[in-house]
Write a structure and sequence with these properties.
Pathway: Cofactor biosynthesis; NAD(+) biosynthesis; deamido-NAD(+) from nicotinate D-ribonucleotide: step 1/1. Keywords: ATP-binding, NAD, Nucleotide-binding, Nucleotidyltransferase, Pyridine nucleotide biosynthesis, Transferase. Catalyzes the reversible adenylation of nicotinate mononucleotide (NaMN) to nicotinic acid adenine dinucleotide (NaAD). It is built from eight helices and six strands, in the order E-H-E-H-E-H-H-E-H-H-E-E-H-H. It is of the alpha/beta class. It has a single domain, classed as HUPs (Rossmann fold, 3-Layer(aba) Sandwich), CATH 3.40.50.620. Strands 3-2-1-4-5-6 form a six-stranded parallel sheet, with helices on both faces. Helix 2 runs antiparallel to helix 8. The termini are far apart.
Length: about 210
């Protein structure tokens, strides 16, 4: 079983996230995508102290973020929501999650009836790839994973100072910040998120 990991705040999860992960399955033949919401991103620790984000929107609960992920991937057996970082709480580091997943999938489990084969794929956008050297134990991450870089807004050849697999994904100019800002300004955001996520956000009054 080939496993790839897509981590992030998913605040909220949007069509760009789903399209990126789907491209990994289609282009590279992965069997499962672990969507891993962070409890607190190491690059957003200061923001986590405040009830409102930089767009002025109220922060949703962890429960809301998880529910939106589950709604976004519902019915797609190749995706699952991995709650390791949420359950662990505190600052989320990728290297810890990777080590955990190697142990979890060393044997068949409720997610996969087959054990892991090969390296775990780590999916990141080209924006995050530029600061990859700043990640905790980035050298160990490179040893333990196949880093897969997807395009967020760059055309042409990608070039970074570490080995990576370049994804030929279609660029969707969508960001969670953009969505939160649109909601706080009472603008339409239906085109940016899966239908079930759109309804959940509206029903629960998130990001107001």
């Amino acid at each position: 079983m080939k496993l790839a990991v897509l981590g992030g705040s998913f605040n909220p999860v949007h069509l760009g996230h789903i399209a990126l992960a789907s491209s990994v399955i289609k282009e590279l033949g992965y069997d499962k995508i672990a969507v891993v919401p962070a409890y607190i991103s190491p690059f957003k620790r200061r923001q986590a102290l405040y009830k409102k984000d930089l767009a002025g929107a109220l922060r949703p609960s962890v429960k809301d973020r998880i529910k939106m992920i589950e709604l976004a991937i519902e019915g797609n057996f190749k995706f699952y929501c991995e709650k390791y970082e949420i359950d662990k709480e505190g600052v989320s580091y990728t290297i810890d999650t990777i080590n955990y997943l190697y142990k979890k999938f060393s044997v068949p489990n409720e997610i996969s009836d087959k054990p892991l084969t090969g390296k775990i794929g780590l999916i990141i956008g080209d924006d995050l790839a530029r600061s990859f050297a700043l990640w905790k134990d980035s050298d160990k991450i490179i040893e333990k994973t196949d880093v897969i870089v997807g395009r967020r807004g760059v055309s042409g050849m990608l070039s970074f100072d570490f080995p990576f697999i370049e994804l030929k994904n279609r660029i969707l100019p969508i960001s969670s910040t953009q969505i939160r800002k649109a909601i706080s300004e009472e603008k339409d955001f239906k085109a940016f998120v899966p239908p079930a996520v759109y309804e959940y956000i509206r029903e629960h009054g998130l990001y107001k």
